[in-house]
Write a structure and sequence with these properties.
By secondary structure, the chain is mainly α. The protein has two domains: 193 residues, MFS general substrate transporter like domains (Growth Hormone, Chain: A); 190 residues, MFS general substrate transporter like domains (Growth Hormone, Chain: A), CATH 1.20.1250.20. The chain is 75% helix and 0% strand. It contains 20 helices and no strands. Helix 4 runs antiparallel to helix 18, helix 15 packs antiparallel against helix 19 and helix 18 runs antiparallel to helix 19. The longest helix is centred in the middle third of the chain and has 55 residues. The chain starts with 5 loop residues before the first helix and ends in an 11-residue tail after the last helix.
Amino acid sequence: MKAATFGEVFAVREFRVLFGSFALLVGGDSIKMLAMSVLVYAQTGSPGLSAAAYMVGWLPFVLGGLFLLSLADRIPPRALMVAGELVRAVTCLLLAYAGLPVWAMLALVLVTGLFSPVFFAARAAMLPEVLPGDAFVLGRSLLNVASASAQIVGLAAGGAFLAWAGPTGALAVTAGLSVVAAVVLRVGLPYRPARGTTEAGTAEVGAAREKRPGTTKAGAIRETVRVNRQLLADRRVRGLLLAGWLPCVCLAGAEAMVVPYLGGQGQAGAVLAAAAGGMAVGEFAVGRFAAPGLRERLSLPLAVLLGVPWLGFALGPGIAWAAVLAAVATAGLSYQLGLQRRFVESVPEEVRGQAFGLQSSGLMTGQAAGAALVGALGEVLAPGPAIAVAGGAGVLVALALAGALRPARTPVNSPA
């Protein structure tokens, strides 16, 4: 497979649209979660409810990922992505100006968030269509870099907006960003038919439905459950999903302990920012300088690297060393680049949207579970040892998944 370049990736207009709208989405979501947390705390004075408000936007990924993902292959992708931005804009405006009680705000975010996995899946599944071959992997790398950078900028901007206009003003800014993203997507992307109903290749798809996951006329919930089961029953797909999920579960657990490790003070922000920076640097370096074959061979050692630095927290490092260890660890997240080509080739094209949705929903769910598990461990142990345990678990998980993390011995461009 010929190695692509970042220049070639950015030369594709549709990718530039996806990239820009994704940066707006991640930055806006960071501002929204921060503003909502502050708004809830201002109304209730409860740290617990404030923390719940910060995390509630991710919880719907569990239910949405289990029951609604088939919509990503049944509705044209541009329409889905535009609808997602408009739903986010309306939600933010209601949170800011409708005067809702706390329970209603949390319920609104949960209900509207049920479709978030579908919107994310539509975007992810469109990427290999506009970026074939190795360009797709570099595109994923650039989106990950954008995610890390937008989180940092979004949190910093969120703090500035909160100080200037309060939580309602920050939520209004998020709504504005969503409207801008919707316009960019609507104007910048051409129409593409729904993946499960495209006329091209209909005969092949119809013949394949007897043998492998596909779209049918069943209801969205039933179809989502059916295809999820079939994807997970496929040994190769299941291995790649677990390889993408489980090391990140341990990473999320370690990161969740950074705030209590530093005594709940503002120093944690510096460590978490260093972690985001390490992720961005790792994604860029591996995407830019590693050839496709090397990228896949690096998956196992980089997945191991994801856990090793956290072991150093058993020694009680100060903030400077904690930031260095966190940055080195998250650089290992680039291990996922070596899985992307194999994942795309392992799933049927007609359910690619649901497959990518399952990948992201499982990742979100696993990270929440990892944070909860290591948080519970931190109640028993001190935060430093709990972080070290999470790192050790990450190393063991990566080694246990070595079969899925290692590439097949056949050449990259060989037929399966």
